[in-house]
């Protein structure tokens, strides 16, 4: 027995295999706090080895650490409530469209863990209360910093604005290029995916929707 353990200890991937042997309990797999750098570093070493690389090669030595840092940044939104940016509102007697367009974002497609990048146009018609314009950009930023699909991202942004600003008139349009489509698979570069969530007036009233689309396209 002890000989077998000694053998295991001498294998350089022992630590990695310990990680693999850990049974993730429901409690453990739930993200509760900051990113676990050690686990990411071990996983990246395993991936490098699995594709036929030597993770101890000089050029790759720092790669696991860099990837862990990058994932911490790309997935920071998992640990934040993006809706909190909309908690402070101001009373304002304005009931026309408020639109912040071309909010740039980079998110990570949850199917391939590859980035998708683009812009979000976020609009609402205030129901007596408005929020700071930069807060809408912050909501987009934080919602995008999670493993995402563009459809859910679009809906989440609309839901947050509808809930927190107490208005049913919300329009969100997201346009993005997905690396998983441009650099692998069908390799279609430059193709854009467009998703939209139209609520309340923007959904029911064609004139309001046209006005919004004209503003987004710069014809307003
Ligand atoms: Zn993908």
- Average pLDDT, to the nearest integer? 87
Bound molecules: zinc ion
Rg (CA only): 22 Å
> Judging from the principal axes of the Cα atoms, what is the shape?
elongated
Q: Helix/strand/pairing class, anyone?
A: alpha+beta
User: In terms of per-residue confidence, which ranges show pLDDT below 50 for 5 or more consecutive residues?
Assistant: 1-29
Number of helices, where a helix is a run of at least 4 consecutive DSSP H or I residues: 10
User: Span between N and C termini?
Assistant: 77 Å
Strand neighbour order, sheet with most strands: 5-2-3-6-7
Major sheet: size, sense and barrel closure? 5 strands, mixed
Query: How many extended strands?
Result: 7
- The helical percent reads 40-55%
What is the beta-strand fraction? 15-25%
Element order: H for helix, E for strand: HHHHHEEEEHEHEHEHH
Protein architecture, described:
The chain has 220 residues and is an alpha+beta fold. 43% of the residues lie in helices and 20% in strands. It has helices at residues 2-10, 14-21, 26-29, 37-50, 63-74, 133-144, 150-165, 179-182, 201-204, 206-216, and strands at residues 90-91, 98-109, 114-124, 129-130, 147-148, 170-178, 193-198. It has a five-stranded mixed sheet. It has a two-stranded antiparallel sheet with strand order 1-4. A hairpin with a 4-residue loop joins β2 (98-109) and β3. The model is unreliable at 1-29 (pLDDT under 50).
């Amino acid at each position: 027995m002890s000989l077998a353990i000694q053998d295991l200890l001498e294998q350089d991937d022992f630590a990695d295999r310990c990680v693999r042997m850990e049974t993730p309990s429901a409690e453990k797999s739930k993200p509760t706090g900051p990113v676990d750098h050690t686990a990411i570093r071990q996983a990246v070493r395993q991936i490098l080895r699995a594709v036929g690389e030597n993770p101890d090669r000089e050029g790759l030595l720092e790669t696991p650490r860099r990837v862990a840092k990058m994932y911490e940044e790309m997935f920071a939104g998992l640990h934040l409530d993006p809706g909190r940016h909309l908690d402070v509102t101001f009373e304002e007697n304005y009931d026309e469209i408020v639109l912040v367009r071309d909010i740039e974002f980079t998110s990570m497609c949850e199917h391939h863990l590859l980035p998708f990048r683009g812009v979000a146009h976020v609009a609402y018609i205030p129901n007596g209360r408005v929020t700071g314009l930069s807060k809408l950009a912050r909501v987009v930023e934080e919602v995008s910093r999670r493993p995402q699909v563009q459809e859910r991202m679009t809906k989440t942004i609309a839901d947050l604005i509808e809930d927190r600003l107490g208005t049913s008139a919300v329009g969100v349009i997201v346009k993005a290029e997905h690396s998983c489509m441009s650099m692998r698979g069908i390799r279609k570069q430059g193709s854009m995916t467009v998703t939209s969530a139209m609520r309340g007036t923007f959904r029911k009233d064609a004139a309001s929707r046209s006005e919004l689309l004209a503003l987004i396209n710069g014809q307003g």
